[in-house]
Specification:
The protein is an alpha/beta fold and 362 residues long. It contains 15 helices and 14 strands. Strand 10, helix 9 and strand 11 form a beta-alpha-beta unit.
Length: 362
């Protein structure tokens, strides 16, 4: 099977590099043992085409150091690539983002599907005011144009209004289970893309004014300078430490040695990092958005009112003061995470693609 996947994001993209890019890499790294995959991503400074086994990454757009220009140039160039090459593939997957829809369902007769992650909704208007309205319109109607669609959670499927979408969860690397346990150190952790509004980092920094523990932040992103400025203005420089990008082994230690993992996002798809924290045996504190509620339902997380720093600080302090309860949540987390290995998820995804192309595996 020859697969074409269209996604702006890439794991090394300095502006985004989020869960969608991780998902693409982990799934296709496994499927490349049996199939040939081309992933078309947006260019960023230093991006060059490369291959791993039968997995080819091709970058289109502009090398200029400008995120907005990069994402719009990607939309134009990726659409051009699609028009010129779609007949060379057996199945096409478009990763949806409201900023760069490629209209693949209108541009090709090759069997195709759309992958959706999280819905921003009114947050687009809050971020961009009237300029966010076109993106809100695209987000509301575009995924419904596709006959075949994938969502990472039931909550995302419901928000997008796609009752026929197939649920294929995100996953985690089995190596996270190699370590039988971690020695707790005196900090709480956040890891992910440094996007202040999306990830609720403003709420988290404000909450740190009301706690007595350190916060270690791992990740990169276009808001890094703004985040460091916010930390200074909030007077928590001695309590909040940026660790930058971490590789897989560093990431495991970073999460595993923390007392609590916090994800205060205003919107998410499913949150791969929540599953990773669970695999490390960590209790999680999450915002009260439907997409993250599964951590509470599974018994390893507690939630706070989204955007409410006082409530978040209260939940952090509660877990820090209740060692036995905190550790009990961590034990439940590790058991839950064992159901979400990338090898299993890749098999589900492969069967979906075969079905999309008509059940013929070539």
């Amino acid at each position: 099977m020859k697969i074409l996947h269209l996604i702006y994001d890439h794991i090394n993209n300095p502006w985004v590099g989020g869960g969608g890019a991780v998902r693409v890499y982990e799934l296709y790294k496994r499927l490349s043992e049996r199939h040939h995959i081309t992933v078309v991503c947006g260019k960023y400074p230093g991006a060059t085409d490369y291959s791993e086994r039968n997995l080819d990454f091709h970058f289109v757009g502009t090398h200029k150091n400008n995120y907005v220009l990069s994402t719009f140039c990607y939309a134009a160039k990726a659409s051009q690539f699609l028009l010129s090459n779609s007949k060379s593939y057996d199945v096409i997957v478009e990763d949806f983002a409201p900023y760069n829809p490629l209209f693949s369902t209108l541009m090709t007769k090759t069997p195709h599907a759309v992958q959706v992650h999280h819905k921003e909704g009114i947050n687009l208007f809050k971020k961009y005011f009237i300029f966010g309205l076109p993106f809100m319109t695209v987000e509301k109607f575009y995924p419904g144009l596709f006959k075949n669609s994938i969502c990472v959670s039931e909550a995302s499927r419901d928000k997008f209004g796609l009752p026929g979408a197939v649920i294929i969860s995100n996953g985690i690397n089995e190596k996270l289970f190699d370590e039988p346990g971690f020695h707790e150190e005196d900090y709480i952790s956040y890891m992910g893309r440094l996007h202040i509004h999306n990830k609720g980092l403003d709420t988290l920094i404000k909450a740190m004014q009301m706690t007595g523990i350190k916060l270690l932040i791992a990740g990169e992103g276009r808001d890094k300078a703004g985040l460091l400025s916010l930390v200074r203005k909030s007077g928590v420089e001695g309590k909040v430490i940026s660790k930058g990008y971490l590789n897989d082994s560093e990431k495991k230690d970073f999460i595993g040695r923390s007392k609590i993992f916090v994800l205060p996002s205003r919107y998410e798809g499913q949150g791969i990092v929540i599953l990773e924290a669970a695999a490390c045996g960590k209790p999680v504190i999450i915002s009260s958005i439907p997409e993250l509620k599964y951590a509470v339902d599974a018994g390893f997380g507690i939630s706070f009112k989204t955007g409410d720093a006082n409530d978040l600080a209260g939940k952090i302090n509660f877990l820090l003061e209740n060692d036995a309860f905190r550790k009990a949540l961590g034990q439940k987390a590790r058991e839950y995470a064992k159901k979400y290995l990338w090898d299993t998820i890749a098999g589900d995804y492969e069967r979906f693609l075969i079905k999309v192309m008509g059940g013929q595996n070539s």
